[in-house]
Request: fold
Amino acid sequence: MARLIRTEKEVEGRFTEQWIVVEEDALDQWPAGPRTVVGQPTRRVDGVERATGAAVYTADVQLPGMLHAAVLRSPHARARLVRLDLDAVRAAPGVRAVIGPDDLDVLTSEPCYEGHGVAAVAADSFEAARAALELAAPEWEVLEPLLDPEEAVRRESLLAEPRRHDRGDFDRGLAAADVVVQAEYRTQTLLHNPLETHQSVCHWEGDTLVLYTSTQNIWGVRDEVADAFGLPHDGVRVICRFMGGGFGAKNDAGDYTLVAAELARRTGRPVRCALTRREENVVSGNRNATIQRLTAAARSDGTLTALGGEFVSALGWDGWLGPTAGPMQMLYACANVRTVEYGAKLNLPPMAAFRAPGFVEGTFGLECLLDELAARLELDPLELRRRNHADSDGTDDRPYTSKNLMECYRRAETHWERRHEVRARSEGPWKRGVGMASQIWYGGGGPPSYAWIRVGSDGRAVVVTAMQDIGTGTRTAMAQIAAEELGVPLEHVRVEIGDSARGPYSVISGGSSTTPSMGPAVRSAAADVKRQILEIAAQRFHLEERVLDLKGGNVVSADGGSWSLEEVTGLLEDAQILGKGARGPNPTGMRVMTFGAQVAEVAVDVETGEVRVERVAAIHDVGRIVNPLGASSQVEGGIIQAIGHALSEERLDDPATGLVLTQTLDAYKVPTIADVPEIVTELVDVPDEHLTNLGSKGLGEPPIIPTAAAIANAIRDATGADVRSLPITREELLHALEAAREQERRGAAAPA
Amino acid sequence: MELRRPPDAQHAVAALGNGSLALAGGTDLVPLLRDGIVRADTLVHLADAVPRGIDGTRIGAGTTLAELEVDPQVPAALREACAQAASPQLRSMGTIGGNLRQATRCWYWRLRFPCWLHGGEVCHAKAGQHREHAIFGNERCASAHPSDPAAALLALGARVRTDRRELSVAELYRLPTDESRDVVVLAPDELVLELDVPLPDASVYLKAMDRKKWAFPLVGVAAARFGDRVAFGLAGVAPIPWAVDSADDLDRATPLPGTAYKVQIARALIARAFSAL
Amino acid sequence: MNVRLTVNGEPHEAEVWEGESLLFALRERLGLPGSKNACEQGECGSCSVLLDDRLVCSCLVLAVQADGHDVVTVEGLAEDGRLHRVQEAFAATGAVQCGFCTPGFVVAAADLLEHNADPSDDEIREALSGNLCRCTGYAKIFDAVRLAASQ
Reply:
């Protein structure tokens, strides 16, 4: 029966209370460990399409008569439009429609950040569209931009109320400590740089807007665009079968979609609006920079007595304040915690979610601080973390649905033990060291999410749901779950996704929520189908349903009878078995979180500031693993992205004008294959017994969280230098080494 | 825009100048054209116009970096500089002649800020973001020359033959001036045809970059030993490839606040290069 | 301008404008969208093709430069309906995530193995350093190249 419940919904650490209708199944979780299909390393069901170039991305969509849009974007961080010649644009060759600030909400005559949309044109080719925009000849009154986040906090230019958390008595905690460490950490602005830039193709079929888009959130885009155009929600059909990466930046419709839709409406023709790489790196979102002033206090045995932090996030003109203080509030048991978070509103491009927003930044600060504390306490960093293990959520004392962080630490030991041998391999200017860091993050998913499954007379199953695969292997995982429940080979299951007109609602692919949200719905739908098949088989073979089961593509009976599935479904002819499943609620009063620990080994050239990450061991606890091959991909991908975050990536803005300088991939340096260390992945793989019929949590985000801190801690281990600012460029490292030498000189000069 | 493919150097030279530009591998020119940083009415495709290939110490200007990096006739410093430049795709397209003419990666210049190098009044990098910029010759413009091979050719004392004269690589480059913001002395219609690269007793190229491969040099150091004389050529430290005699020359560097670290790296790499010879 | 070129063994003819890239011509005029446009300036390798057996970024080659030349794209690697061993290895090892960089990697890896049947890890790193994978599947891509080399 459908049940109406009031429940807490979480995406990327943001909670809302909402009413949800849930349908529950009575399925017990499968026993722990690898099953016939689930838990087995499984190649992508769509791998060949991707490897042959046959997969059709939004970038590859070609529609008859399609026009190309270009957007005139502000070249200033803050300005007022004085003059704009849209008539000249209209008269340019090949131009079919032009829109300006008065025509669409996302276009403005008073831009507040570089790249803010001003006008747009649809033309026969992208070159013609771009050439036409040159004729707009805008004149600007350039205004003074606000660029400094600390200044913004002083002026109370904030995107949200300051967020305060105060538990216990911070000052008493400080007073009770034997050791107090304080330091300021900084993290940089980072760019997502998915290889497929943000783009949409819009096409009106009568009153319906058909919209091909590169998105992580089919249903969110549908609703956002429908609301913008005053359409019923299903008046917008969103299609995304393959998409070329998002990492959090493709959760919304974006101005390009609204521009394409409006230009398509005006021209009556399909319109593509695709960001260039430069536009991508200016306006499509970023991981905002942070400044973190942190305090940790502990007794000599390592027990934390107080944790405190002031966090300033440079959010840009729009966006939301990620949970940067989250790790400090939740990762360790500490009675006295005081944090305040400010979200600075600046004349810089808006932030967007980026793989574990807030926690990536906050974990860098906290986990480096913890190592500085361990050094002062002369305690082993791993032991310090063990001693402060949190048994429940420190913010509200809720029990965790499952937590195997101690097991992660236990498995980390063998990697941690290598540090003596690693240090001993230091040679000449190359110093070697080992560092570690822990991780906590959300990733439990939640309702609603739905799946349908149909089985025809050939015994093949088709899973239908309007979800997207953002590259994580969602099609494969869903096929595995359906195959496992139905007891059929993986090859007998197809997964049809990516079209809001052809399937039920699915969760956003963000917040590590895809598998934990959709997986249980798919299993539930498969169980519905299975029940019906067994009912039919029972009648056909004159047996009781309870003695029948589906295994290996056969209907089997307790007394040894076995009939191929086709023998049963073959009766159907054109009739079909239709199953449906829904994601049930999360357990009330409990907290669903993911955990992990990573150990990094580095080599540092102390003369040239070069850092080589040589090995990273990652141990993560995310419940049941559906596809170990896909899971290790996620872990490796997260770690490699984090190496970029730690060492080479940084958006640079001109301090005078607020313009983004690193717009191309030569200036913004993502890792290459040559930057990849040996990566050892271990997954605890214990189902969360309280979470759904699957016991799986998400793994998209956890692996990127602890890596930068583990690297910085390894650098300290190797060289004695405290690196407190990302990225750890050669400049940053050489400065840190100099500061460490200076401190040593002063220390040596002081009387004993 | 028009594209011409002259059959020889003479025709190519005749086609150059007056708004036409030479196109070799295109790895730098094509993006510059696309971004509107340089403009051309005509592209003069050099595929048939400049020699390609390696013959002893002589290298055709149309020889690709990929061809140079594997040829045992080529001195180690040049081979290593080519091998560490750019990416395999770009090295299989980019020619050594074009590489000598490549433009700075200065983000202000590439974003068409009205900077001094573009003919304006100020160098925006000096008061702005300049971690990749110059430590020498940066009085008017702090841009850094990005060519690894040019630094090697400088250290090796290579000579350049154009359609009208012969000059050393050291003479090919000069710091831009108020009168001319160009970094080479070549006329707009002058074509580099060939290089002559003396064979040293030993040579090496060392490079510091932001990632392990496929990045422009923060500091590149080429060193070549001829008898008891060692010459160094540096990449990424000045608006042009920069020659130094020894690490002592770094005492005369004029780093910006954000490029002081390059002096330290250059010092370390010069010492390493010297001991590698 | 009219250009004639051989793509994946088939003669093609196309009307292009002077500044047009080979990538654009392949994708928009010749119906071969496998090569991807991601960075537009030769920095990511997603548009990698073989031009007269040399690995190049087709976004930097002008279509007119390819006039009279031989081009192989990701669509041309499979033979007689059988996947190229590199494609098979990418699928088998899970070396595809979002897949947008995959065609470029597959072409670069096939080119590597064509010239070096048994590459060392360092040679793999070198040969694939011009292809960026943001997801980033480099570790599995290593596995794929090693697997393909072993076959």
Remarks:
- The radius of gyration of chain A is 27 Å.
- Residues 514-541 of chain A form the longest helix (28 residues).
- Residues 522 and 751 of chain A are 70 Å apart (CA to CA).
- Chain A has a mean pLDDT of 96.
